Give the backbone structure.
Amino acid sequence: MSQVPGGQKTLQKRHARAEKKQQLSAQTPTSTRSAGAGGSSSTLLKLFTDEAQGLKVDPLVVLVLAVGFIFSVVILHIIAKLTGKFIS
Amino acid sequence: MAEGMEKLTEVPTEFIREGTAFINKCTKPDQKEYLRVIRAVGIGFVMMGLVGYGVKLIHIPIRYLIV
Amino acid sequence: MSSFRLLDLMKPFGSIIPEIEISLGKSEFDDKIIYTFVSCFIYLLLQFPIVGVKVAEQLSIKDPFYWLRPIFGSEKGTLLEFGLLPILTSAFLWQLAAGNRLLNVNFTLKSDRALFQTLQKLTSVFLSFIYSIALVSSGYFDSSVGNPLSLTTAALIVAQITLTTLFVTLLVELIDKGYGFSSGVLSLLTIAIASNFAYNTIGIQVLKTARGFESVGSLVNLMKNIRTKPLGSAIISSFNRLNFSNLNQFYITIITFAIVMYLANFRFELTIKSTKVRSMSQSYPIKLLFCGSLPILFTFTVLYNLNIFGYAISRKMASNTLVKTFLADYDIISSSSIHYELTSGLLYYLSPSPIYNSIISKFLQTIIYSFFIITTSISFSKTWSSVSGSSGNDLSKTFKEQGISILGYRDSAITKELNKVIPTASITGAGILSLIVAFSELFGGYGLPVSVTVGITSGLTILESIMSEWQQNGDKNSSFAQVFNPNQ
């Protein structure tokens, strides 16, 4: 005898529903890559591959800014040395 | 309790069994291939290291300048 | 489902956060080499002392994280105080959250992907802010100055570290977006690890320590010791010094390197055949190290995070014995040492600390530490292989799209077969790799062998993607390709 309340039919229905749910969850992608848009793979971490509507900057500008940042730190060092500030 | 213990040991042994089976099925590099890879990667790694270390050395004069 | 989404909080930030333009059209191969090189160059230049920490005494900062640093390209007392840690932490955190559906994000929508990216970027900068506050407030930098920092100096230090992380994020993004090769994080990591290895082996710098002047590089130190000291003590002291890298670390690293290189070439070969075109059957390798170095990287990311907060808390509540016994306690073991060592608490058991409290605690530490490393890596690799878009389902989808079938399997059985092989490969690979790493650390590697493991596996991954790009672009300059293409 069936031990499931509602008999075999409910069980089958339940199975079907569970399967459908599983399929659905298998379909929604879990990462940028499985959505087919680049991004990290199993061995490769690719974090920023999408275009967001933000403050657009040219890559060269970023490189120049980064070097500028290092320079500003160097200059701060020199100022700190001359005035004795910041170094408590 | 005994059942719990059984489960506790079952997972690692299962894992080890599957793992060794998988490794046995794997294609392993032969000596020639291995030596080729190790040379290529080793040289690449050391070259990168030397270049990177060169960049690091730039810091030394700058440090003397600002100290 | 829930109407509130964390992702929507990112919308206002979307327009403020700097964002690198996506490259129109394909960048030239040579351009990519230049961009990658310059980015790595800038990353290395960022290892510059922070303003506010006395430059001369930057080395005197007592370092509690020395065994974690090489893996993340971080350097104490410099702008790269945390290296790539904030970026890696935020990447792992959000990707795992999204993969386990804790974070509601629909990756098929472009807008959601953009928001997800903004979230990652913002989190990494924010984390760096939090970390630096934790360290500044716990008096980490004080030992280099001698007394507590003034408020302006503290603020200056936090600002510098946070800004640096923003710039590093942008460098990573620049490489990721196709101006450079493959993955930004891994490229920067590989170059940082390689140069750190060179620095620790053949570093010619001479630094003043409590034992007199010492060379940084372990091999250089050995040469010098042989010249200046009697042979026996020369060799012994170059093997067991603790403040700089020693020969012990060097040969463990070399052994690890050899083993990992061997393992990296283990692969399970599936015979595939095109269903559309009549052609020879080819082999499609599924690597044993399916997740590459990422499981190890993840495990040490967790450890580094734990240690930062553990250190901050244990310093703040130094008098609290509960914290000391249960969380962590850091101590300096000898006056000549420039490191803090973990001496007790939970974090002691999660570290390969050289402290011997007693045989039993050492034994327990060995077991717990190895267990932690192995289980964390394995469980991460299991999740990651299914989440990162390289799972059996994903792969079989690509196979179907390209009209490829596996020899000896019906179309319907392909997914099943792939779903069986891939998790096994990734779990086994992560298990073996983490075992090696745990061993190397317990024999006194202090992070160097782990970093080299991460470095060479990442390097191999990058190399492969460069090679495949090369071949796709039709540039079959095979003389170059053969030298640098060990895997095909």
User: Anything to note?
Assistant: Helices of chain A lie at 7-27, 59-83. Chain A is about 50% helix and 5% strand.
